[in-house]
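Dear colleague,

Thank you for sharing your sequence with our group. We've completed the structure prediction you requested, and as agreed, I am returning the results in plain text so they can be pasted directly into your records. Please verify that the sequence below matches your submission; if there's any discrepancy, let me know and we will rerun it promptly.
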Amino acid sequence: MPRSVGEVIRPDKGEWTSAKDHAYRNELAKYPVLLTPELYGHEEVAYVGSVEDIGHPAPEADYQCTIRRDERIPAVQGSLLEPFAEAWGMPKYGKYFRHTEWRLVDADLYKLLVTELHPSSIAPKMFNLPQRSPKNQVALMMPFAAEFNPVREAVDKAAKLAGVKCIRVDDIWKSSIIVQDVVDLIGESRIVLADMTNKNPNVFYEVGIAHTLGREVVPITQSDQDVPSDLAGHRYLKYVPNGEGYTKLAKELSDRLTTLLCEP
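Please find the predicted structure tokens below.
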């Protein structure tokens, strides 16, 4: 793997020559990158990022790979990666990670970082913590009463305009325990939308889980009085429960979802 951002990488002749194809390079850019130094001590750290560009800067260079680090993900002590080197097919030069190269690895980087290298010290008794990385989808937390059906329709419209799927827990049935489905849905969704109207205790509980898991929460409500004091400083969308109000809600939600989805 490259040792630094923008370093020229030279694979063996004939290896990955199809990367010269523009479409193939675009496909490669979709994968996460683990940028690790050559390990000769305990102070080196590895970073997680993504491929920004793969080019041919000069005739004598095979490729130049530009990588952007994801500042949201903590650095990883390089020596912690050595136990995984053999499974990744890394060559051994006396020890692993002693030579500059790049390699495509069939591995779940998110699971590695969360469960193997940085296991959570939180161990809930009511449910298991989700292990999958969040998708560009919206988890909807709201009362199930029929009077909220127009709200659901407005939210679905907003999600569609923003180009994402909106899922409510009654849309799925993966676990025999409903709270596990709720937690998994929150964990697998980048954004959680919560209707706090009528101070529904289930919604408040689910918002607490979403905040704990680090998800982006977008509260909506029909009344300012329904927003608990602990969330008084949290911006929310207030809507009126009529045709005009639902139309306005869909537009405002769509704008907010689009803004959040554009953030890295």
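Summary note from our side: The longest strand covers residues 45-55.

Kind regards,
the structure core
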